[in-house]
Design a protein that fits this description.
Number of strands: 5
CATH class: Alpha Beta
Strand order of the largest sheet: 3-2-1-4-5
Number of helices: 12
CATH superfamily: Ribonuclease H-like superfamily/Ribonuclease H
Order of helices and strands: EHHEEHEHHHEHHHHHH
CATH architecture: 2-Layer Sandwich
Number of domains: 1
Distance between the termini: 26 Å
Helix content: 40-55%
Shape: globular
Largest sheet: 5 strands, mixed
CATH topology: Nucleotidyltransferase, domain 5
Structural class: alpha/beta
Amino acid sequence: MHTLVFDIETIPDLELGRRLHGLEGVEDNQVAQIMFARRRAENGTEFLSLEQHRIIAISVAMRTRDTFKIWSLGEPQSSEREIIERFFDGIEKYTPDLISWNGSGFDLPVLHYRALRHGVVAPRYWETGDEDQAFRWNNYLNRFHWRHLDLMDVLSSYQNRGRASLEDISILLGLPGKLGMRGDEVWTHYRDGDLEGIRNYCETDVLNTYLIYLRFELIRGRLAPAQYAQEIARTREYLEAQGKAHFAAYLAAWPPSAEPAA
């Protein structure tokens, strides 16, 4: 079985913003600020509607029978189309179980719109049983099927008032939570040319999600306490072996005492 934890980072789709608001010839940051202001006037928040987002990073953690790995798809200079194709190509090749935090409410709808924008073909992802009967009863698209597990949805019992942020649940479990930046700072870092920092930030969000997922597997009895401890040790060993500053910072902020007693 392959398990793929994923997270995306986005910026305003400036091309769309120019078309929506008649802003041809306006410089990028001003277009973004107008998009934020229009949204704030409409909804009281600067968080853009999902079709107005452009993906600049997708980070994943893959757990297979023998391996564990965290990485960001493509290179910092890769096009949006390329990183989306890489995401769906991985599903095509491995048919993994997908794990996310608010993936149903944000990441996957944005991926759908952007795949539609670029014409990215992904038959395995969109399968609902016509070609593979197994997908009739468990596919990526049905809210109550677990081929995609949105931890935020499940842990809140699908209740809006029960939802919590990835940051808050990470801290609840003694995990570091957000490191280096926050989601509403991604546009500023992008303007400053800090794509590597954005990808590193996305990887630590994936790491938080993966560790919450392990704890979830423990409480629902799919991991015995000893197996859970082994998975935590494997994760720590992997992070130590990578020699990357953002993983070292995560380890430094993640005390072993955060784990429940066996």
